[in-house]
Amino acid sequence: MKRGLGIALVGLGAFLLVLAGALKFYAVPALSKAPLVPGESTGGISTSLAVGTAETLFDPSALVAGENPIRTNVPLTSTRTTRGDVTESQTDAAKADDLAIYDSFSNLTDDTGTTISAGTIRVAFDRVTSELSNCCNANIDGETVEWSGINPLKFPFNVEQKTYDYFDTTLVKAVPIEFTGTEDLDGLEVYVFKQSIPATQIGEQEVPGSLVGSTEASVKAPRMYENVRTLQVDPVTGSIIAGVEQQKQWLAGADGTEKLTIIKATVGTEDATKQAAIDDAKTNGALLKTLGSTVPLVGFVLGLILLVVGFVLVARKDPSTS
């Protein structure tokens, strides 16, 4: 009787040990990957909002109308919509490197709903490390670029407290973003990263010379850009919970000094979008922690106990057989 029970306990203990190992080394790594489609609970499309104010905003339509083209304290709303290209992610090239492909559209509008700027990005990235790839027709506004660094839409799983190369879509290159500390957001610990982009020329813009201190009827003025970007990131899943950008773009004159401010604005994640990201990170992070540590640990300890008890019962001589 005891021998039979012992054999059963040995079998159950072995099963729990195998289960603990399978969860720890197979199931959790399989789950710790970016989905092929973001926003699976919202039909495969993810939408986020950011709001803020333009301290200064140049309005070219007002210039045409003969009005003051400089607006101040303008409310802004930025909408980003992202979907996954599942078909492309199933190609041999994407599957070979375990890539996800996301198409994302952003639209910045003022308080009248008028678009100030808009653009698209198509990113192909490693589903675990978020490293960008030049695969799969990745582009910005339809133009091929050289991708490097990590995905601007997502950090890697198991984020480290270090400096990452984070891709800036305005500069079209990766720029270091530094870990600066941790914060608590409604019970969720997040890592804070800060990226400071100094004044950099991003192109030229043809404008009436009078706007940039020139006597010429028309000139091509250097367009300058600077930004301070602060991101709050879930360290388990790599999701960007919230962020703030303090961005400025302007036109420089022939002497290199600022002549016309195009936009000077601060825009940050809207509260409802932020809370939804916090809730998702809590749910997903808790699941990964449970499957990756709690359940395997309990299974391992209980499995060892059952094995020991089972072996003892098997080895013990049953008096009924004497």
Automatic annotation (TrEMBL):
Origin species: Longivirga aurantiaca
Keywords in alphabetical order: Membrane, Transmembrane, Transmembrane helix
Transmembrane segments: 297-315
Protein name, per record: DUF3068 domain-containing protein
Domain of life: Bacteria
